[in-house]
Amino acid sequence: MTRTVVLADDLSGAAEVAGIVLERTTDLELSLSGVDGLTATVGIVDLDTRSRSTAEAGARLSAALDAVPTETRVVVKIDSLLRGHVAATVEVLARRGRVVVAAGHPGLGRVVRDGVLFVNDVPLHRSSVWNAEPGHPPATVRDVVGTAPSVAVPDVAGDRDLDDVVASVAADPDAVLVGSGALAAAVVRTLPAVDAAADTTTHGSSRDVLTVVGTASAGARDQVARLAEDGVPVVSVDAAAVVAGRASTAELESVLARGSAVLIVSGPLDPSASGRLVAALGQFVSRVVAGRSVDLALTGGETARAVVDALGITTLRPVGRVHYGAVVLRAPDGRRVVTRPGSFGDRHSLSAIHAHLAGLSVGTVSQS
User: Fold this and answer.
1) Angle at which helices 86-94 and 54-67 pack, to 10 degrees?
2) The pLDDT value given to residue 368
3) Would you call 132 helix, strand, or coil by DSSP?
4) CB count, 10 Å around CB of 88?
5) Quick one: which of 48, 32, 108, 78 has its CA closest to 176?
6) What share of the chain is helix, strand, coil (3-state, %, to 5)?
7) Where in the chain is the domain with CATH 3.40.50.10840?
8) How far is Cα 244 from Cα 1, in angstroms, rounded to an integer?
């Protein structure tokens, strides 16, 4: 019986949690279609709300909560930089009862002190990590989640604080925990450990990799440059052309016919059109890889979900992890999909993901 349900707002976040759970137990499921039917000890659901309207995000969360069995621990996974519909999420939860919002991710240098989220010792509202967002970052966590007495916002300086948060609700199964993957990891640490799964299969030179970079972060650009240094060709498509449906797939198809490729989006685009860009990019990628023996590395949760939706993929089985946040998922058609939040990973992240999927040593490519 499912004892823990994790509700995530995007696919890379859901997969991040799946990678954490795999270190503890293989008895887990990742659903793209809701809570109903989950049978594993840990059920992870991508609600796919990050790019939707506030009203739709709240409605999807409410419907998922209604479907959760009683006596089940609910964890709502939010972005560790407080992006997305965090305010609406907590508002829905607070109407139902006790909520503990343990924001931040200490392992990534994101901690909460005196109610303020710091990113590598810089207050969130003074950092540049929201540069690609349409709004402004909040000065405090309370500025996002409100002041309802049923909502607690503890400081989080390290994993011990998160373990204390989980312990504080142990006797209250109806309390909902809200936080990043680090909070989910604290919940996972309370589960019985079993042998973890490992994805050791490779596909050889006949199985190529398409890396799709759906994030505007500076770190991702550097990671693309590092992968290009490995010899993987980079194909750029114009954002406006993708949204208008007139971007040609010819160059990307030609490159993939010879081996692996990286797809990036270039050119200016109004942030208010980002949702349409993500959906159109998913369709663009599906036209290229449908029917091809191509594995996928997808950065950015919205991009990842748009691509798998466009390919008609409704279930994904977590099978391994390349590094923290980069999780290997198996699709029903046999292809492997690695998802990773856009802000995660060092300069070598995409190279490591590509090497894993292609069965190569890092820094080696099979491009003809």
Assistant:
1) 40
2) 31
3) coil
4) 18
5) 78
6) 35, 25, 40
7) 4-188
8) 46
Structural contact between residues 47 and 67, judged by C-beta atoms closer than 8 angstroms: no
- The CA distance from 105 to 179, in Å, is 8
What's the pTM? 0.87
- Residue in the block written with tokens 């030609």: 254
What sign for the dihedral angle of Cα 14, 141, 160, 121? positive
Q: Please give the class, per CATH, of domain 4-188.
A: alpha beta
Residues of the chain within CATH 3.40.980.20 domain(s) are 204-358
For residue 108, what pLDDT is reported? 92
Domain 204-358: CATH class, spelled out: alpha beta
Q: How do 176-179 and 73-77 pair as beta strands?
A: parallel
Chain segment 324-343, per-residue pLDDT in tens: 999 999 999 899 999 998 87
- Measured CA to CA in angstroms, residue 149 lies from 91, 98, 173 at distances of 12, 9, 19
Mean pLDDT of the chain: 90
- DSSP class of residue 48 equals -
- Nearest 5°: phi and psi at 4? -135, 130
* Residues in the chain, pLDDT under 70: 1-2, 195-206, 216-217, 361-368
Q: Which residues pair with 123 in a beta bridge?
A: 118
Written as six digits, the tokens of 180 are: 């990043």
Q: What region does 312 belong to: left with phi over 0, alpha with psi -120 to 50, or beta?
A: left
- Is 208 in contact with 259 (CB distance < 8 Å)? yes
